[in-house]
Amino acid sequence: MIDLRGENDNATLRSNGRRVNEQRQVTCELSVMNSCNAQGSAIFSVGNTKVAAILQGPHQITDRGAG
Asked: How many domains, in total, are found in the chain?
């Protein structure tokens, strides 16, 4: 962290430029992938990190345990 003004927490910055008391932006978008035959889809993001998820189904359960 870079301390700009000494002991003041509001002035101390993290390496990515956020203040110590500043939160990352959180968003969630629903039904974003309509062209892949998905039953549901979403993109969840926290700051610059994004995760895409799709749901397809229902499907028959197959036995993968017997080997």
From this structure: 1
37: domain range? 24-59
What does the pLDDT look like over 24-63, one tens digit per residue?
A: 899 999 988 877 677 889 999 998 899 999 988 877 878 8
Q: With respect to residue 33, please indicate whether it lies within any of the assigned structural domains.
A: yes
Report the C-alpha gap between 57 and 60 in whole angstroms.
9
Residue-wise pLDDT for 14-23, tens only, equals: 887 888 888 8
Q: Are 18 and 29 in contact (CB under 8 A)?
A: no
Q: Please give the helix or strand (H or E) that residue 56 lies within, else none.
A: none
> What pTM does this model have?
0.57
> HSE (CB half, 13 Å, CA atoms) of 19?
8
User: Is position 7 within any domain?
Assistant: no
- Whether 41 is covered by a domain: the verdict is yes
